[in-house]
Amino acid sequence: MSARAPITLSPDAWDAFLAGLYERGDRLDLRQPGQTYAPDEVVDAWVLSGHAEALRSAEVDGDLWGTLEDIEEEAGSEAEAWAKIVAFYLERGCVLVQVQGLDEPEDWILSEDLARRLGLPVDG
After folding, report:
1. Closest CA to 102 of 49, 65, 59
2. What are 25-34's contacts with CB under 8 Å, separation 24+?
3. Superkingdom of the source (predicted)?
């Protein structure tokens, strides 16, 4: 399987993406026009992190080293660790979402099914 290109969002597009989601129970989904959503269904980075396979974020601790251990890999640096995590999940059909234009990396790995359901532009 060839590596798929990351989904790249601007900070404004990322904020709009999160604002367009809701969480009800254990399900994350797109808000629909004309529907009413309870305040506790709002999705921010913390809520999304519960649905991500892995992440590297200034806002949310993605436990980089714990994730690396979970996939039974080792690395000598954070950059190497993240590269191994990304490779592991991309090989399994996940997608990488990157928010560009921030001072610190904002990278999220989501299952393809979740990314598609949330309206992200998943190719192939």
Report:
1. 59
2. 28/114, 28/117, 28/118, 29/117, 29/118, 30/117, 30/118, 30/119
3. Bacteria
Q: Do residues 94 and 109 lie in contact, with contact meaning Cβ atoms separated by under 8 Å?
A: yes
Q: Do 60 and 105 meet the contact criterion of CB atoms below 8 Å apart? A: no
- Give which of 94, 99, 69, 95 is closest to 81, Cα–Cα: 69
Q: What is the pLDDT of residues 38-95, one digit of tens each?
A: 999 999 999 999 999 999 999 999 899 999 999 999 999 999 999 999 999 999 999 9
Give the integer Cα–Cα distance in Å for 80 and 100.
20
| Alpha-carbon torsion, ordered 38, 44, 48, 49, to 10 deg | -130
Dihedral over alpha carbons 68, 4, 1, 91 (to 10 degrees): 10
